[in-house]
Amino acid sequence: MARIPSIYPHVWRAPLLIWQGLFFVGPLILMVAMSFWLVRNYRMEPDFVLANWERMLTRDYFWSAYQVTFLRASLAAALASLFAFPASYALAFKVSATARRWAIFFLIVPFFTSYLVRVYAWQVLLAESGPVNAVIGFAGMGPFTMLNSGFGAMVGYLTLVMPLVVILQTFSLAAIDRNLIEAAWNLGASPRRTLVRVIVPAARVGLILGAVFAFILSFGDFVSPFYLGGSKPPTLSILIIDTTKSGQQWPRAAVVAVMMILTLFTVAFAAVGAAYRRKA
Amino acid sequence: MRLPILFFRLYLLALFAFVFAPIVTSTVFSFNSDRFPTMPLGHFTTQWYQTAFARPEVWEAFRNSMTVALSAATLSTALGFATAYTDFRFGFRFKSAYLALALLPPTIPLVIMGLAMLAWLGQLGLSGSITGIIIAHTVMAAPFAMAICRMRLQQMDASLEAAAWNLGASPWRAMRVVVVPFCLPAIISAFCLTAAVSFDEFIVAWFVSGLNRTVPVMILEILQGNVDPQINAIGTVVFITSITLVVAAQLLLLGRTAR
Amino acid sequence: MSMSHSQPTRRNLLATAAGAALTVPMINRAWAQEPTDINILAWYGHAEPDIVAEFEAQNNVRFVPKYYAGGDNMLALIAQSPPGTYDIILSDAEFVQQLNAAGYVEELDASLFPFDDFWPEYQNFPGHWTGGRLWSVMVRFGLLGVSYNTDTLSREEASSYNAYWNPKVAGKVGHFDWHLPSLGQISLLNGNRDPSPFDIDENAWKAVQERTLSLKPQVGGYFDYGGTFSSLKNGEMLAMCGIGDWITGVLQKDGAPVASVIPEEGGIQWTESYSIGKGSARQEVANKFIQYMLSPGGQVRSIQMAAYPGPSPTKSGWKAIQDANPAEAERSGLIEGHDQSPRKLLAEKRLFLRDIPRQQTLEDWNDFWSEYKTA
């Protein structure tokens, strides 16, 4: 390594520092600063006042939105993990490696494909006069109201996160040493016991990461709670949009944003800690 | 877990049905004659495509989206590759903080990114410009490029580059003749994927774009506006574009790893 | 790049295939000089082809819209952009004062506009003039009342704001997601008619809040323009608070079983006016566009605007729509002496101008709206 000119590593290291410093850290710091600014006549003025914090954090609507957002994101993470698991299990253990690769291939595609249009499609599918109710109608039930409800929002969240959760789970399940599982069989463990005692702990990292990403994405999502949940009740993202819309109250929106980021970091660090903690 | 294989087959089928139902629906309704989507379907028509693509602003939006996606993909791939190489090749103090900085952007909710970006770009006099969208999308897409390039570098024999140095090649030359060619499929793949990320992104673009609409921003505005079935037509074209990009990205990677 | 703007052949081909009336301006544009962009800030629909295509073709300009929802939103958007960004601002009339106070709009030359042609009640719209100086010109208006699904509610049942509490629409009452129209309606229900549902003292404001909160169990969602449309159309919502014919009129044309009625407590009038953005470099053509929209032809377009209809404030506009589309003139009462004529409703004090809160701040109302949404 001695012959490497000293400039060489910096050329590769510096771009990220400069770019993300200028266009990622910069905006976030400005946003934190903005939460202490004042608004007069629809114009923001740099200042240092606690009024925005005081105002938002003493409002019941902020805390109920916070609660709803947190609970919904947790539920989305739990449901996504639960629904994804049998599929991931099947992909990891029940199909060939080629089939698994294709399945993952086809899961990556929707993850990067226009979420907004997919949510609009759900609006069509779940409408009272829509195809899903038509099918339910054949069975002599319904029609059910699925839009503008927690259910609708949840369908949206799952649309967003499901592919990613399956992918992460599948990777970690497929990486489990088969000998470990066979050993459990040979020792006479029941299937359920093998699952709970051997497979789940061994795949812990992927399972937790899947759930955490589901939480993070759902927690910050604006589209599903708005277009499928009918803003009923509004989540924190909707609150941010509402607040910026009304009278240029960006400083207050910044307060909400900072609270969201703090929450996400706490959850993410706690979860990553749990995922990589050494087995007790 | 001795559940019959049939159960797993059906379960997988259901999962994929759930994931792809919206995509199929949107495509089907884009050819449906009714003004508002209801069952049963009307008759087959291409009128929504015709109306949508007869509007100059739709073409304009596609042109904007293309400009943004290609620029953001170029920048974020370069950034991602440099970062991945740094992680692969060098050890230094605060490396974990460096990597956190590299990988954090996707965890920030888009609404917040939009808010912060607009405020920041406003200070720099870049709000409401195409450049602003490109900058924002580069920040958001770079981590994906970094991940892809890093995975590819992992497969490279670390001594390969060192051997080139020992044979007298400068690090720059070794980079050019050894590392870059080895990573080329990953670089192209990263380019496609980041282009797809940018092409689909609408919340930050909506905040930042001002009067320069990209395609997904236009879709958002139709959704907030008169909910015209053109949404499905434009959406289907967007699907095809991003699916093509993502599939290309993956085929490039799979093709090499399988070898 | 196959999608590039500068490749007219393919675009023309498609345009021709569309076979729409749109084709003409498009082909003209292909070999004319690059058109001048006019930036317009407006509610959705005001820069769509049915309104602007003809003007664009005649003047070699191109409208670039930024759409907003609600006056507060509009002010925020202007505040975020450098002066001169928007050439034309279509604003709700009650926000013109604030546009003017903040210095966001240019003074207008009154001699350019046909004020003689306006019906008297619309000539001196509040806030549009200050001491003989003109800041904004009214272009259209509309009525807000109870909008409902005609399969569920009868016209009689819908003829009071109490309809929102009707068990038949439990869980199916939607709100247009803006505080002014919805709270104004509840204020009217509370009998705040004198001088206006928006000029109420603290006690009355408290009562409006309580009355509004009692509606919460009936509410099915809060919608933007697009959501309001689709949820009424597909029957997700059976009654909608804070809107009127500007939504249901469009849906009716599409065959949906919906209607709006001005209830016994009175309706609310929304009003839209054009201003010219401060520092606009294209004031001449902006003035020309406002004149165009106030001409009988422009008014006919405005009355039948595809996004949402808006009756005309001018005498010649009424005459023109009576000739061009008698059914529409009849439907929206744009006929002198018509039973539902908006002028008659206004004279009978059955119609109140939508306004900003006079004794509270906009922020108070907005804050309560957030609270109500999360309640």
Structure summary:
With 259 residues, chain B is an all-alpha fold. Helices cover 77% and strands 0% of the residues of chain B.
What does this structure look like?
The complex is a heterotrimer of chains A (280), B (259) and C (375). With 280 residues, chain A is mostly helical. Chain A has 2 domains: 1-32, no CATH class; 59-276, Orthogonal Bundle (MetI-like fold), CATH 1.10.3720.10. Chain A has 13 helices and 2 strands; from the N terminus they run αββαααααααααααα. Chain A has helices spanning 7-34, 51-57, 60-94, 97-111, 115-126, 131-138, 150-174, 178-186, 191-202, 204-220, 223-227, 236-245, 250-276, and strands spanning 38-40, 43-45. The longest helix of chain A has 35 residues, at 60-94. The model of chain A has no long low-confidence stretch (mean pLDDT 90). Chain B is mainly α. Chain B has one domain (56-258): Orthogonal Bundle (MetI-like fold), CATH 1.10.3720. Helix content of chain C is 40%, strand content 18%. Chain C is globular and about 60 Å long. Chain C has helices at residues 8-18, 23-31, 49-59, 71-80, 96-101, 120-123, 155-158, 179-189, 202-213, 225-233, 245-253, 283-294, 296-303, 315-324, 326-331, 342-347, 362-374, and strands at 36-43, 61-68, 88-92, 129-130, 133-134, 137-144, 146-149, 173-176, 219-223, 239-241, 258-261, 267-276, 351-353. Chain C folds into 2 domains: 33-141 and 271-335, Periplasmic binding protein-like II (D-Maltodextrin-Binding Protein, domain 2, 3-Layer(aba) Sandwich); 146-265 and 350-374, D-Maltodextrin-Binding Protein, domain 2 (3-Layer(aba) Sandwich), CATH 3.40.190. Chain C starts with 7 loop residues before the first helix and ends with a helix. The model of chain C is unreliable at 1-30 (pLDDT under 50). In chain C, helix 2 packs parallel to helix 3. In chain C, strands 1, 2, 3, 6, 12 and 13 form a 6-stranded mixed sheet that branches. A 5-stranded mixed sheet of chain C has the order 9-8-10-7-11. At the A-B interface, helix 1, helix 3, helix 4, helix 5 and helix 7 of A face helix 1, helix 3, helix 4, helix 5 and helix 6 of B.
